[in-house]
Design a protein that fits this description.
Cathepsin B, Chain A; 14 strands; single chain; 44% helix; globular; 19 helices; 2 domains; two-stranded antiparallel ribbon; disordered N terminus; disordered C terminus; 14% strand; alpha+beta
Length: 474
């Protein structure tokens, strides 16, 4: 019975969207007639190939059948430029890859500077404050828009995931600069930080409750001051849930380390901000996001509305440039022994998580089905077939006559994924499913730096590039 109700709801919803969003379909036009259905049925022929594919799909995984071994054999694991990294992180069942990617860039500097065997910043600590800030941002939105229609598209997206795991570089920078960082040993992973589903479900239910209550208060004539006083009480509940799920974030802590030679450092007392100053020690405002979204004009500055995570933070801003500009900046970073964060679409787009290969024609789905999949990058973005949904770190590149053939990637899916946690991405794959790189301004040409000073074009919260923040997260 429950399945029937759900099915009827989905049918009703889809039908409502069709008739409400555009022109109404004239009565008796566009229907599937018996003649049309007969034509469609007759177009399918149970020939030998169709029977063979059908029988194979009954017993086998689709990707295994579509695997193109010739493409995989062409790929090797050699790189002309490869930076040393130590340790593979694992975000497990959470959408925190953007935090992992940011910390994976900076932790290698700590390992090298202090001669360590390994080191990790606490992703759990950063997520704690990111969730807390997102809760405040969400409630402020409700307070400042108390009469917004429940069916407003922007409000619907916020209500759908008021406290998502997902984020972008700007959110990493915002939370790190405000709250600092701590070593993972000071605030280690918990079950809920590694498996965020149930925690998110319950906390987001509270957020929707708070949204309703704040709107009712406003409807009853309560002023903004009273709403913000109520918000503080609501944030206390969110803080309590976060502490019980993730642990208490420290305001001060003692820490020391042992280097590769067995030398033990003196014990020092830190605040998260002083630890950031000593162990990261760079101005995150000096970093720029170069994006590649071919559905928008190149050479312009763009900003995603509400893509910031906290009120006083910076919305996700990016310069929309040709892929050649992104690659040139990435190459300069690597040539200067600097790792960099980047984002791609990893939703099964011609990549093998077991081998770590990311290459065009890795799978031949067209031959399996006998149909074409012709969408290019622009068309994929416009039709919502593709969007950035995963952040990783570039650690190497293989060059031929100065041009990149493939790139080496440090992922955050644990050492069991890919080649001991590393992935290999061909340059052509990067063109098709790569969306951004995060680099220091010093690696950019002066004319590109000048573009960062231009007034950004504001994109709505439902823009394809905002998908990682507003819906499902990296």
């Amino acid at each position: 019975m429950k399945k029937l109700i759900i099915t009827l709801f989905i049918v009703f919803t889809v039908s409502s969207i069709i008739f409400a969003a555009g022109k109404a379909i004239p009565e008796n036009e566009g229907v599937i007639t018996p003649e049309m259905l007969a034509e469609i049925r007759n177009s399918f022929v149970w020939d030998g190939q169709s029977k063979a594919v059908y029988n194979a799909l009954l017993e086998n995984n689709l990707s295994d059948l579509a695997k193109n071994s010739r493409t995989a054999k062409k790929l090797d694991k050699f790189f002309s430029l490869e930076l040393e990294t130590k340790g593979i992180t694992d975000q497990k069942s959470s959408g925190r890859c953007w935090l992992f990617a940011t910390f994976n860039v900076f932790r290698q500097n700590v390992i090298k500077k202090y001669n360590l065997d390994g080191f990790e910043f606490s992703q759990n600590y950063a997520m704690f404050w990111d969730k807390f800030e997102k809760a405040n941002l969400f409630m402020e939105y409700v307070i400042m828009n108390p009469n917004i229609d429940w069916n407003d598209q922007e409000f619907i997206l916020l209500l759908k995931t008021p406290l998502p795991d997902g984020g972008f570089w700007s959110m990493s920078a915002n939370v790190i600069m405000k709250y600092g960082v701590v070593p993972q040993s000071v605030m280690p992973e918990s079950n809920s930080s590694s498996n965020t589903g149930k925690m998110n479900d319950l906390m987001e239910q509270k957020m929707r409750q708070f949204a309703y209550e704040l709107r009712e208060m406003a409807k009853a004539g309560k002023k903004v001051k009273a709403l913000r006083e109520a918000k503080v009480e609501m944030l206390k509940e969110i803080y309590r849930m976060l502490v019980l799920n993730l642990g208490m974030p420290p305001s001060t802590f003692e820490w020391r380390y042992t280097d590769k030679d067995g030398k033990i450092s003196e014990t020092k007392t830190y605040t998260p901000k002083s630890f950031y100053d000593e162990f990261i020690g760079v101005d995150l405002n000096e970093y720029v996001v170069l994006g590649n979204c071919p559905s928008q004009p190149y050479g312009k500055n763009y900003r995603i509305k509400l893509g910031r995570g906290q009120i006083e933070g910076t919305d996700w801003t990016f310069l929309n440039m040709e892929m050649s500009v992104l690659k040139e900046a990435a190459l300069k970073c690597l040539q200067d022994s600097t790792l960099l964060e980047f984002s791609v679409d990893m939703t099964g787009k011609q990549r093998n998580s077991k081998t770590g290969f990311m290459a065009m024609e890795l799978y031949d789905y067209e031959s399996v089905y006998g149909v074409k999949f012709p969408l290019n990058k622009t068309q994929m973005v416009l039709t919502r077939d593709s969007a950035p949904n995963h952040a990783m770190v570039l650690t190497g590149v293989d060059l031929k006559e100065g041009k990149p053939l493939k790139w080496k990637i440090e992922n955050s899916w644990g050492s069991d994924a890919g080649d001991d946690g590393f992935f290999i991405m061909t340059d052509e794959w990067f063109d098709n499913w790569g969306y951004s790189v995060v680099v220091n301004k010093k690696y950019l040409p002066p004319e590109v730096v000048e573009l960062t000073k231009t007034e950004p074009v504001m994109l709505p919260f439902w823009d394809p590039l905002a998908k990682a923040v507003s819906v499902e997260g990296y």
